[in-house]
Amino acid sequence: MSKSNAAESDMLKLIFNATTFAELAENDTTGPATTLTVALHTADPGETGTQATSETAYTGYARVAVARTSGGWTVSGTAPTVVSPVANIDFGECTAAAGGAITHFSVGTGTGNYMIYSGTVTPNITMAVGVIP
Predict the structure, then answer these.
(1) Cβ distance 14 to 27 under 8 Å?
(2) What is the pLDDT of residues 55-92, one digit of tens each?
(3) Whole-prediction pTM
(4) Taking all residues of the chain, what is their mean pLDDT, rounded to a whole number?
(5) 129 and 60 in contact (C-beta within 8 Å)?
(6) If you ran DSSP here, which 8-state letter would residue 127 be given?
(7) I need a surface site. Which of 47, 81, 83, 99 has the fewest CB within 10 A?
(8) What are the angstrom distances between the C-alpha of 131 and each of 23, 54, 100, 108?
């Protein structure tokens, strides 16, 4: 089963921009998430994984919160609709133990380790002291 281009775009706007999906979903009115967290991974967390699955652990690393608004994420185009951060997402500098190469990223709610989307980092980031992914 596939979605229409309009439904795909509206669903992504609901998730990334907190925009109402007309007649189907509204932003949570009791305590909506105001940010989404981006995590880095040393392997594919997979569809059954979480943001903690294969999450990098280099010294200086922490997940980055991005506003769940049109000021944090751009949702544009149709067939396909593309989501991208408005600004660079800069992680902490590696200050010691580098760990493995960064091969994947994930976007989640920041509550627990709930992962909404994941994807490949291309090219992979070879970690070393002084590198800022």
Answers:
(1) yes
(2) 999 999 999 999 999 999 999 988 788 999 999 999 99
(3) 0.89
(4) 91
(5) no
(6) P
(7) 47
(8) 46, 19, 13, 24
Cβ contacts of 96 within 8 Å, gap of 6 or more: 58, 59, 60, 129
Q: Please provide the DSSP assignment of 78-126 as one string.
A: SSS-EEEESS--PPPPP-S---SPEEEEEEE-SSTT-EEEEEEEEEEEP
Instruction: Give the Cα separation of 107 and 72 in Å (integer).
Output: 13
Please, what is the Cα angle at 73 between 72 and 77, to 5 degrees? 155
Render pLDDT for 10-32 as a digit per residue (tens, 0 to 9): 889 989 998 888 777 766 666 77
Q: Residue 99's Cα: distance from chain center in Å?
A: 21
Percent of the chain with pLDDT over 90: 67
Q: How far is residue 129 from each of residues 11, 58, 87, 89, 132, measured CA to CA in Å?
A: 39, 9, 24, 19, 9
| Burial call 51-76: b when 16+ CB within 10 Å, e when fewer | bebbbbebebbebbebbbeeebbebe
